[in-house]
Specification:
By secondary structure, this protein is α/β, with parallel strands linked by helices. The protein has helices at residues 30-50, 68-71, 111-119, 132-136, 147-171, 188-203, 221-227, 236-245, 289-299, 321-341, and strands spanning 55-56, 74-87, 92-105, 124-130, 140-141, 176-180, 209-213, 251-254, 273-279, 308-312.
Length: 344
């Protein structure tokens, strides 16, 4: 009951990459960098286990960014000539690669990270991939064509590649493959119209559990400022959850603690496992176990106990390492307190 998990990313140690950045530069290269990435992965696995996290992940330590880490093994993408583009409906600008031809995988993308993590933990293992719609929103297109038709065609092309890697991850021993779709909270109508269908294509035929993470973004200034424009109630989920409830995706991860999301919207996910965000990623203030337990107890009004999985609101990548470690500990202790109160 109340098995804990992280949304995905964790801060990179200072000896691996620049700290407190969304697109950090690596501190080394070649074989030395590969070793440093592996060391960081093992470090965070241990931290998660020590914190009492039940479903652990690699913390995305081998990826510079949660989207571009996948794209590095995709042919048809030009990383040499990045362009500046507004993403998430022009919420902020980013230097992004360009799609210049047909998309295909050059080989396995995350085999080494998944197998390393699987070999070094007995916990349930979750691995994250970017969702098709979010990839489309984080690259510049020079091949598939402008307008909605081009975006849909490109999304399903990426979904095919994601499906190939997701199936391989399941074969590597991954228990849950999670697709990250922050774009769902920006382009709600498109998400309901074709984004969920592209997501289902990415998850098609998987023998492991499937999940989708939808949040209001990392705790960076552009996202914090955007949230302040959303009013007293954030009802974006209301447009997406009904389509997800009808989908074949097993789990849905959402933002809850310190957000303005009406808790009753979780009712729209009847029949799904719900990863409830109980840890704020936009603040360095460490939650108390009592606060975490209280968020869990509040969510129980709308989600059955056996389907409630306490989680972080989003990834912790831009945070200071010591803050992230303390927040993971609070997550573990808070869930334990909630179990104790329910006699579990």
């Amino acid at each position: 009951m109340f098995e804990t998990a992280i949304a995905g990313s964790l801060p990179k140690p200072a000896w691996l990459a620049e700290t407190e950045k969304l697109w950090p530069e690596w501190k080394s290269s070649g074989a030395e960098l590969d070793r440093a990435k592996a060391d960081a992965t093992l470090l965070w696995l241990k931290v998660q286990e020590d914190a009492g996290i039940d479903v652990v992940g690699d913390g995305e330590q081998s990826r510079q960014h949660f989207v571009h880490g996948f794209l590095a093994k995709v042919e048809g993408i030009d990383f040499e000539h990045k362009v500046k583009m507004g993403i998430r409906d022009n919420r902020y600008d980013a230097m992004v690669p360009q799609v210049v031809g047909p998309l295909r995988l050059s080989g396995r993308v995350h085999e080494s990270e998944a197998r390393l993590a699987r070999a070094h933990t007995g916990k349930r293992l979750k691995f994250t991939l970017p969702g098709p719609m979010t990839i489309v929103d984080t690259v510049a297109d020079r091949y598939y064509g402008s307008g909605k038709e081009g975006r849909i065609k490109m999304a399903f092309a990426f979904a095919e590649l994601l499906n190939q890697e997701a199936r391989a991850l399941a074969a590597d021993g991954v228990d849950i493959v999670q697709f990250d779709e922050p774009a769902f909270n920006v382009y709600m109508a498109d998400a309901a119209e074709w984004g969920v269908a592209a997501l289902e294509r990415a998850a098609e035929g998987l023998t492991c559990k499937t999940a989708v993470h939808i949040c209001y973004g990392y705790g960076i200034k552009a996202n914090v400022d955007w949230k302040q424009t959303l009013g007293d109630e954030w009802r974006q989920y209301e447009q997406i959850f009904p389509a997800l409830a009808k989908s074949r995706i097993d789990q849905v991860s959402l933002e809850c603690f310190h957000s303005h999301v009406p808790a009753e919207l979780m009712r729209l996910l009847d029949g799904k496992d719900v990863m409830v965000g109980v840890i704020d990623v936009a603040s360095d203030v460490i939650e108390t176990p009592e606060e975490v337990a209280a968020t869990i107890e509040s969510a129980l009004r709308y989600v059955p106990a056996n389907r409630l999985f306490p989680c972080t609101n989003c990834g912790l990548a831009p945070m200071r390492r010591e803050v992230a470690e303390a927040k993971l500990a609070a997550l573990g202790k808070g869930a334990a307190l909630a179990r104790q109160r329910r006699g579990g």
